[in-house]
Write a structure and sequence with these properties.
Blueprint (H helix, E strand, L loop, with lengths): L4 E5 L4 H15 L8 H5 L5 E7 L2 E10 L3 E9 L8 H15 L4 E7 L3 H6 L3 E9 L2 E9 L4
Parallel strand pairs: 4-5
Antiparallel strand pairs: 1-2, 2-3, 3-4, 5-7, 6-7
The site of coenzyme A (COA) has 19 residues, from helix 1, strand 4, helix 3, strand 5 and helix 4.
């Protein structure tokens, strides 16, 4: 397998459109949902991080900066590349970006089936399970230490 290159991309670019397509395929279509124009417009102020392998976008996540923390959302790896360590590297890249930008912690709404993945990455549950996009989620957080 070739090396994966991670980078930050801008909202509205062809790379961003490719990340939306990946998220639609991996996160929304299985739930029978589609992204709305309004939803995507709100992502203008978010930070979009992606992984490329062989010029193909295979992983994506977004960060929403908050006061001392940031929210990680829309974490997705293309189906054919899941289970190969890409999700782990993507989360590492998000955490490094958050640390470089002065955030003390990073939190997310983890889908219930992905909770073991985040637990392995050091994320701790906060509160009880709740429903979002029609499925069970858990709020999880990781305190970040400097690089
Ligand atoms: C969840 C997801 C991002 C994980 O990425 P990935 O590339 O498949 O995961 P990795 O190969 O990096 O796995 C890292 C570790 O987590 C474990 N893991 C990954 N997904 C898991 C799951 N759903 N349940 C249990 N363990 C899991 C792996 O076995 C691996 O463990 P190891 O370090 O002991 O070998 C990816 O599978 C995905 O995109 N899933 C569909 C969309 C999704 O659920 N996104 C998250 C929304 S909150």
């Amino acid at each position: 397998m070739n090396a994966v290159c991670f980078k930050v991309i801008d909202h509205g670019t062809p790379e961003y459109q490719a990340s939306v397509a990946l998220r639609q395929e991996v996160l929304r279509t299985p739930l029978g949902l589609v992204f709305t124009t309004e939803e995507l417009a709100k992502e203008k102020d978010h930070i979009h991080l992606v992984g490329f392998s062989d010029d193909k976008l295979i992983a994506t996540a977004s960060l929403v900066p908050e006061l001392f923390t940031c929210k990680m959302r829309q974490v997705a790896v293309s189906t054919s590349m899941q289970g190969l360590g890409m999700g782990s590297k993507l989360v590492d890249f998000c955490e490094s970006h958050a640390i470089e930008n002065g955030h003390q912690s990073i939190h997310c709404h983890a889908r219930e089936y992905a909770v073991p993945f985040y637990t392995k990455k050091g994320y701790i549950p906060e509160g009880e399970y709740f429903i979002e996009v029609n499925i069970s989620h858990l709020h999880m957080r990781k305190v970040l230490s400097a690089l």
